[in-house]
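User: Show me a protein chain along with its predicted structure.
Assistant: Here is one chain, sequence first, then structure tokens.
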Amino acid sequence: MQNPVEDISVDIAVELGAAEMPVHQLLRMGRGAVIELQTLPGEHVKVLANGMQIAEAEVVVSGDAIAVSITEIKRADP
């Protein structure tokens, strides 16, 4: 019998970085536009589940792929 918890969907996101720009510049961006971030390979990034940080990870580049390697699981405060 399958565990019902395994059927729950969770939205996972990785916050790779942030950028600040004027709204008019954002509105002029089109398909294929590139937003430069300050995060470099090997730096720590946030891993979010349903908008809450659950872990930290390092950015890993392998060929053309960008991935993250989990370095720390965040524990919930009691």
